[in-house]
Amino acid sequence: MFGKGLLKGLKITIGRFFGKKSTVQYPEERLPLPDRFYGKPDFHYDKCIACNLCVNACPNKVIKLGTETVEKKKVVTGYHFDQQYCLFCGLCEEACPTDAIKFTKDFELTTYDRDTIGIEFVKQGQIDKKIKEVKQAAAEKAAAAEKAAAEKAAAETKSQTEEADKAETTNKEGGA
Q: Partner of 138 at 20 to 30 A CA spacing, among 34, 80, 108, 114?
């Protein structure tokens, strides 16, 4: 019979028309996002150990990591994330051993200018502070090592003096 498909379609349409509304007024209301949603990346500078694992894990080479060696320790001097090429796959987040990079639930990432779409996470003030901390820790470690060496030398001198005194006492007793 002709029109059977039409009647089925109208039945569904009328049922939806009088049923419960599922429209969300977007800017004011938002649907809950799934737990595994990957939105805007968030970088924690203090947690980063400059291991380069996130850079190597990225399939599109979106992350550019700049490092500098200060007192035999790597310090992050730049972390550029070019999000226009990002797949939001989360491989960088999984590769990071210290959880320095995370993805937030923020999905509104549009910009008006293509030059501003990249994210520079590290500021110069953070770099200067970190370098100062590393140099101070290295100086404290060197001072502690120097103090330990001085204590060890003093202990050795004391033990040598005691041994010499024992030998002298033994010689006096043996000669008497």
A: 80
Mean pLDDT of 136-164: 86
Confidence of residue 75 (pLDDT cuts 50, 70, 90): very high
Sort strands 73-82 and 63-70 into parallel, antiparallel or unpaired.
antiparallel
Looking up tokens 């990225």 gives 58
- Model confidence at 31: pLDDT above 70: yes
Q: Give me the count of residues in the chain.
A: 176
CA distance 104 to 27: 18
DSSP string, 15-54: HHHHS------TTT--PPPPTT---SEEE-GGG-----HH
Structural domains of the chain, ranges and CATH numbers in brackets = 32-164 (3.30.70.3270)
pTM, to two decimals: 0.69
Q: Mean pLDDT across the chain, nearest whole number? A: 89
